[in-house]
Structures are given as structure tokens and as C-alpha cells.
User: Fold this.
Amino acid sequence: MKTTNQIIEENLKKIRELSGFTQAKVALSIGVERSAYINYERATREVPYTILENIGNLFGCDSFVLYEDNAQINNEILSTRFNIPDIDEKDLKEIINFNDIVEFYLKMERIAQKEA
Assistant:
């Protein structure tokens, strides 16, 4: 049976490769050293939850997807990948910032609905 770190490792590598990103590009975009990101993909270092959130924001998926080990999750990973060739670091940062804004807005909407 796979450990949680092994599942996360496989999913990190899968989503990165499907998106056509290098380890260096992902590391830069989420604000960690390339060596740290490599250790996350190799499961030699546990990924902090905040980093998993940043990765989810980068790839447009919920961070819980990275914990899952089944075929349906593979389809979700495929559906969230970017199809933008040669995206630069500035644009990636803007995408992450936009995802943060949308996520915050959706949380506020859920709170407002509960109060109504």
C-alpha cells in the first residue's frame, strides 16, 4: 500500500508533466527552491500543506486532489492542466493571484449563503 507521501509524489509529478512545466518553473511559481520541490516529488521531504495549496492554485485544482490515488483523480488532474504554451513566470504569478481571489470570493459566498 502506498504512503500519503508516495501518492502526493506521483500526483505532483503527473500534474507538472501533463502541464509541460519544469521542476524549476513550478518551484519558482510557488516560492520554494528547486531542490525542495525535487524532494517533494521524490517523497524524501514532506510537503507542507501551504505549499500544496500553492500548487493547487498554480494548477487550478483543489489541493485535496494531490492526496487521492484513483483513476477519477487522474481525470481531474488532466482536466486542470494548462494548455498555454510558453507561459512566463509573471503570468503564472497572476494566475495564482487570480485563483486566490476566486477562492476567497467563493468562501465568502458560502458564508453569505449560510447566513441567509
